[in-house]
C-alpha cells in the first residue's frame, strides 16, 4: 500500500511549471489532470496490496529528464486505526505533496469496499499565494472475490478544491451497473466561486476530457498519449541494503512465496511479520512505551513530515536526501 501511493507521482511533468501559469483556472486544471493521471497505474488483475504494519516505511527517488529529482517517503504511522502518511518533494520543480490515507474496509457479500478517508495536499511552492490544493479520495471496490470475474472499481465522489482561489471540482467516479454503463467512468464540474467553469468527463483508465462553458473540448489526460506512457521510474535501494522495516524487505519472503504460488510458504511469511508486530507491541506495553513514527508527526489534527524545507532549492535538495537517507 505504501508503495502503491507513490504511483500518483508517476507523471510529474504534468505539474512541473504550473506556477508559471497566470490564470488560476488553468492552474487548477493542471492540478486536476495530475491527480487523475495516477489512477490508471494499478496491478494487473485485482491484487490486494499488503496491509502495512506499524512503523513500516517505503522510500524512493526519481531522476527526471530535465536533470532534476524528486523524493518520496511514506510511513505507517498508526495501526488502530490504520493510517498511512506520505510526503513527495521535488525542490528544483517547486512541488510539494503531503497526504494521509485512513482506509476502512468491509465485506459486502461477493465484494470488498474500502472507504478511503484522508486527503492529498498539493502546493506549488513557486506560487505560495495559492496555498494548498486539497483533494480527497474515491472509494475502492473489489468485486467477484468469491465467484465470477474479479474486477477493481473506483466509486463515489471526491472533491478537489483551493480555498485561496475559490476553485473546486466535485468528481464522481461511477460504478458500472449490472446491465448498463461502462467501467471506470468519471464526471465532474469545475466551479469558480460557485460559477460553472466547465465539465470533466471520460474514463480514468483511458481518456479524460474537459469541456469549458462555451462548449469547447480538449483532452485533459490520455493514457495512450506520449505523456500517458511517460511514467517516472521509482529508484529504490536493493532489498539487502534496506532497513528491516522497509516495505520491500519487510514483505520479500511473502512476495517470493506468492510469485512461486506456494501458499503454505506465503502463510508462514505473513504470520512471521504479524508475529513480530505483536511481539513489538507486547514489549512496548511492558515498558510503558508509545510508538513514535520516524518520519511524521501529528500536528493540528493531521500528519506532517518531520522536516522543515529550506528556502533555497539546492539546499533543500541536499537536506531532504539526508533526512530520508541519512549518511550516518
From TrEMBL:
<dbReference type="GO" id="GO:0005829">
    <property type="term" value="C:cytosol"/>
</dbReference>
<dbReference type="GO" id="GO:0032934">
    <property type="term" value="F:sterol binding"/>
</dbReference>
<dbReference type="Pfam" id="PF01237">
    <property type="entry name" value="Oxysterol_BP"/>
</dbReference>
<comment type="similarity">
    <text>Belongs to the OSBP family.</text>
</comment>
<dbReference type="InterPro" id="IPR000648">
    <property type="entry name" value="Oxysterol-bd"/>
</dbReference>
<dbReference type="InterPro" id="IPR018494">
    <property type="entry name" value="Oxysterol-bd_CS"/>
</dbReference>
<feature type="region of interest" description="Disordered">
    <location>
        <begin position="272"/>
        <end position="291"/>
    </location>
</feature>
<dbReference type="GO" id="GO:0016020">
    <property type="term" value="C:membrane"/>
</dbReference>
<dbReference type="InterPro" id="IPR037239">
    <property type="entry name" value="OSBP_sf"/>
</dbReference>
<dbReference type="GO" id="GO:0032541">
    <property type="term" value="C:cortical endoplasmic reticulum"/>
</dbReference>
<protein>
    <recommendedName>
        <fullName>Oxysterol-binding protein</fullName>
    </recommendedName>
</protein>
Amino acid at each position: 500500500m505504501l508503495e502503491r501511493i507513490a504511483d500518483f507521482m508517476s507523471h510529474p511533468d504534468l505539474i512541473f511549471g504550473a506556477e508559471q501559469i497566470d490564470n488560476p483556472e488553468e492552474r487548477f486544471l493542471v492540478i486536476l489532470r495530475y491527480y487523475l493521471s495516477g489512477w490508471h497505474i494499478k496491478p494487473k488483475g485485482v491484487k490486494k496490496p499488503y496491509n502495512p504494519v506499524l512503523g513500516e516505511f517505503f522510500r524512493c527517488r526519481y531522476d527526471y529528464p530535465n536533470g532534476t529529482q524528486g523524493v518520496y517517503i511514506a510511513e505507517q504511522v498508526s495501526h488502530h486505526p490504520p493510517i498511512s502518511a506520505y510526503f513527495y518533494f521535488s525542490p528544483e520543480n517547486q512541488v510539494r505533496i503531503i497526504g494521509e490515507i485512513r482506509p476502512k474496509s468491509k465485506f459486502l457479500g461477493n465484494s470488498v469496499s474500502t472507504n478511503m478517508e484522508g486527503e492529498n495536499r498539493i502546493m506549488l511552492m513557486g506560487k505560495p499565494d495559492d496555498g494548498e490544493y486539497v483533494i480527497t479520495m474515491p472509494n475502492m471496490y473489489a468485486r467477484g472475490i468469491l465467484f465470477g470475474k474479479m474486477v477493481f472499481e473506483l466509486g463515489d465522489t471526491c472533491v478537489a478544491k483551493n480555498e485561496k482561489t475559490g476553485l473546486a471540482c466535485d468528481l464522481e467516479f461511477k460504478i458500472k451497473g449490472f446491465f448498463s454503463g461502462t467501467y471506470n467512468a468519471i464526471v465532474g464540474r469545475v466551479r469558480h466561486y460557485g460559477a460553472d467553469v466547465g465539465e470533466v468527463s471520460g474514463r480514468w483508465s483511458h481518456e479524460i476530457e474537459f469541456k469549458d462553458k462555451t462548449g469547447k473540448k480538449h483532452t485533459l489526460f490520455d493514457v495512450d498519449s506520449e505523456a500517458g506512457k511517460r511514467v517516472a521510474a521509482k529508484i529504490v535501494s536493493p532489498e539487502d541494503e534496506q532497513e528491516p522495516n522497509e516495505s520491500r524487505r519487510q514483505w520479500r519472503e511473502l512476495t517470493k512465496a506468492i510469485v512461486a504460488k506456494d501458499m503454505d510458504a506465503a502463510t508462514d511469511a505473513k504470520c512471521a511479520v504479524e508475529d513480530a508486530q505483536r511481539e513489538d507491541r507486547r514489549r512496548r506495553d511492558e515498558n510503558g512505551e508509545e510508538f513514535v513514527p520516524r518520519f511524521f508527526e501529528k500536528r493540528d489534527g493531521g500528519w506532517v513530515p518531520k522536516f522543515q524545507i529550506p528556502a533555497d532549492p539546492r539546499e533543500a535538495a541536499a537536506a531532504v536526501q539526508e533526512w530520508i537517507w541519512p549518511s550516518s
